């Protein structure tokens, strides 16, 4: 193999570069636009080079989704924990910043945790971030905190999808999120719920 040919197959950080290419494709055109061949083309390597890191398209997508969940968890943890509305707003903003990735993260790959343990662990950590915020509101009763976390997740996820699908504008969703989640948190803290 000559040096020019070998150079086309070498990439110092191929796995992360393929994930970045997949994320660009996701946000531009959704999961259907992602292929190992197209990700390889964008990175400048041969399609066969991708198999050193990912056995198929779904493994590449799962790795991208896991990375998305890690970023999502970080965004949730950096939100205002004293008001669940801050976490709800962070949830909506993440969905808008990464629409294709967001849809992938909550798609069918997540159901196959045995095949994609890294994805399952990252998704669990994102829920743990919601749970941490809910525990500040719900107090010491674990079952209450879990219920608040699931309610917050469901509410914010629904609003995020409505915004992504152009049903309601972002500003309206954030206003609703603030009114409902902040109000709920305030009532819980004051013992009215």
Walk me through what this model shows.
The protein is an all-alpha fold. The chain has two domains: about 1-55, Arc Repressor Mutant, subunit A; about 65-190, Orthogonal Bundle (Tetracycline Repressor, domain 2). It is built from nine helices and no strands. The protein has helices spanning about 5-10, 15-30, 35-45, 55-80, 85-95, 100-105, 115-140, 140-165, 170-190. The longest helix has 23 residues, at about 140-165. Residues about 1-10 and about 185-193 have low confidence and may be disordered.
Quick overview:
By secondary structure, the protein is mainly α.
Describe the secondary structure blueprint for this structure.
Layout: H1 3-9, H2 14-29, H3 36-43, H4 57-78, H5 84-97, H6 99-105, H7 117-138, H8 142-164, H9 170-190
Helix pairs in contact: 2-3, 2-4, 2-6, 4-5, 4-6, 4-7, 5-6, 5-8, 5-9, 7-8, 8-9
